[in-house]
Amino acid sequence: MPAVVEVLREGGFSSVAFEQRINVVASNNVTIEGSDNAPMIFGGTVNGNVSGATVGAADQTAPGAELRDLIAELRELVRTLQIAKQEVIEDNLEELAEAAEDPGSANPAVPVSRGEKVKKLLGGVAEFAGLTVKISEQVTKLWPS
Fold first, then answer.
1. How far apart are CA 84 and CA 116, in angstroms?
2. What pLDDT, on the 0 to 100 scale, is given for residue 20?
3. Cα torsion through 104, 61, 127, 43, rounded to 10
4. Nearest in space to 44 (alpha carbons), one of 27, 62, 61
5. Would the pTM of this model clear 0.85, i.e. be above it?
6. Could you tell me which of 122, 115, 80, 121 has the C-alpha nearest to residue 97?
7. 31, 55, 72, 93: which has the highest count of C-beta atoms within 10 A?
8. Is the pLDDT assigned to residue 5 strictly greater than 70?
9. Which residues make beta-bridge pairs with 30?
10. Which residues have a Cβ under 8 Å from the Cβ of 114 and sit 6 or more positions away?
11. Which superkingdom (predicted)?
């Protein structure tokens, strides 16, 4: 219990402001009761019942932010390894990044085709496998078919 209170205090929160009772059970379950108007962010997963709460991801970033980060990482790797068709890959990544800036206004066919093209061009290179899969997942999430 003291560790939880200490973390809350370090975060600038006081037990008075939360009007909470926090009970930490030996199995790492946490029960929070009372009323509060402040967001509470916890890492990990939520299992079991949640009632009277709004549950969301701790990182409430803008749509497309994760995709832009992945694209930047892939661009750097492509430049470092200097692979064949590098310019074509970079052009497609640029267009995909532009679409990720404002996913709602992009014509879905454009980022989907750019993502597929990049995936096809980098398909046989093991160094890119993880990033291309993550980028494909993000493209599908932002522009479902």
1. 17
2. 44
3. -140
4. 27
5. no
6. 115
7. 93
8. no
9. 24
10. 92, 93, 95, 96, 99
11. Bacteria
